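Exam prep: given the inputs below (a chain plus zinc ion), describe the expected output before reading on.
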Amino acid sequence: MRTFRCQCGRKLFFGSTRCVACDATVAMCPCCRNVAAMAPQKDGSWKCTAAGCGHVLKMCQNRVDHEVCNRGVEIEEEDQPRCTYCRLNRVIPDLKVPGNLEKWRRLETAKRRVLDGIELIGLPIGTPSQNELLPLWFEFKADDVQPVSTGHANGVITINVKEADSVHREQTRVEFGEPQRTLVGHFRHELGHYYWDLIVKPKLLSEFRDLFGNEEDPTYAEAQQAYYKDGPQPDWQQQFISGYATMHPWEDFAESFAAYLDMTAIVITAQSFPRIEAEVPADDFDKWLQTYREIGVMANEFNRDIGLLDLVPEVFTQPVVEKLRFMASLGHPSKLARPAHVR
Ligand SMILES: [Zn+2]
Ligand SMILES: [Zn+2]
Ligand SMILES: [Zn+2]
Ligand SMILES: [Zn+2]
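Solution:
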């Protein structure tokens, strides 16, 4: 994800709601598509301070009520309390259940990141007001009498709320032998099914069949049954991005779509960071720490792009810095310690 600048010069991130340096209220502006400091106005509205923008916004009601969103809403949209992404929710988790607010927050964070990536590559998002496009809806549901399957049908993406529980998700990941299983990954995959319905089926069906095969033969139900009986094709790496992609052409398309969104997100992130100069004098502790911080900020953004935990979650306050400096006095990497090939 690209990073942003506050009016005070401090870096802001896609999920920021407040500037840690100047304490400004921060939001994602839907007009200039920047995360920026918002200047409070007398009437309770907010003005975007990003260079060249100045649009007047209100905060999404899901932020006001639950702090699960950081997008603004254009002030002209008087009858719309929620932002364009939150409006796509048809079912949200039951907030009376302990823990569900936090799970919902994680779901919205992943959803915003993925939808932003969708808009960056120029794909349309169907809403009920544009009747030529299949409207996109999200339903975040918990198992009840009937278990809830994460999936897509006719524009409705259902995500089982327990996917936002990292322990459950990790267990399932190991059980199904997946290299990664993240909320961001779920959204990208299910959106692949949505864009198949929206774009591929009506306009690109023969091109799709040439690459992915005929989605009518075998039927999805037959393919699914065979997959759960026999597993993925043994040599799947030759032709598929994942084992699951071998199940049926629709799954192949969704897996490939998700991988493409991963790729664009990572490259966009790399573009928004300057090259890091990692050649640091051996005994310059402050420079080592500064370099580590720079790498950490970038690596964290890469991990967030894919939905993984931050690589460098620590905050280096001055007391912590002094303790690390003490470690450096015990020993620090020297040129001699380096293997010959990197010298
Ligand atoms: Zn600031
Ligand atoms: Zn703006
Ligand atoms: Zn919102
Ligand atoms: Zn699927």
